[in-house]
Amino acid sequence: MQHLDDISVRQTLPGFYGKMVHGESSSLVFWDIRKGSVSPEHHHVHEQITYVLEGQLEMIIGGEKMLFTAGNVHVIPSNVPHSAIALTDCKIIDSFAPARDDYR
């Protein structure tokens, strides 16, 4: 067992700070994202489920623009192009399956 406070923070993109937990077949990331930070369009084999705890995150998923606010959750299927910009400081939880070996 771990406490979230004891997990080190990793910056993956400018303004994206994550605490990452990995299982054998999935990963869970607790993000603190700074206002104005951008995740350029990308895609990956991992199915991603994004849950917004705090803030406003604008995402373009498969060509559709969406505004995420606290309480919103969305499944991003494998290999679907997506991008994001933090309109405010945000706290996000992302789950990925299979595990994100590139985040280990």
Fold topology:
Blueprint: E1 10-13, E2 16-22, E3 27-33, E4 38-42, E5 47-54, E6 56-61, E7 64-69, E8 73-76, E9 82-86, E10 90-97
Antiparallel strand pairs: 1-2, 2-3, 3-10, 4-9, 5-8, 5-10, 6-7, 6-9
- The DSSP helix count reads 0
Quaternary arrangement of the chains shown? Answer: single chain
Q: What CATH first level would be assigned?
A: Mainly Beta
Distance between the termini: 18 Å
Stretches where pLDDT falls below 50 for ≥5 residues? none
| Helix/strand order, N-terminal first | EEEEEEEEEE
Radius of gyration over alpha carbons? 13 Å
The CATH homologous superfamily corresponds to Jelly Rolls
Provide the helix percentage.
Answer: under 10%
Name its key features.
104 residues, six-stranded antiparallel β-sheet, four-stranded antiparallel β-sheet, Jelly Rolls, 58% strand, 0% helix, 10 strands, mainly beta
Structure description:
The relative contact order is 0.30. The protein is globular. The chain has strands spanning 10-13, 16-22, 27-33, 38-42, 47-54, 56-61, 64-69, 73-76, 82-86, 90-97. The protein is built from no helices and ten strands. The protein has a six-stranded antiparallel sheet with strand order 1-2-3-10-5-8, with no helix packed on it. Strands 4-9-6-7 form a four-stranded antiparallel sheet, with no helix packed on it. Strand 6 and strand 7 (64-69) form a beta hairpin. With 104 residues, it is mainly β. The chain has one domain: Jelly Rolls, CATH 2.60.120.10.
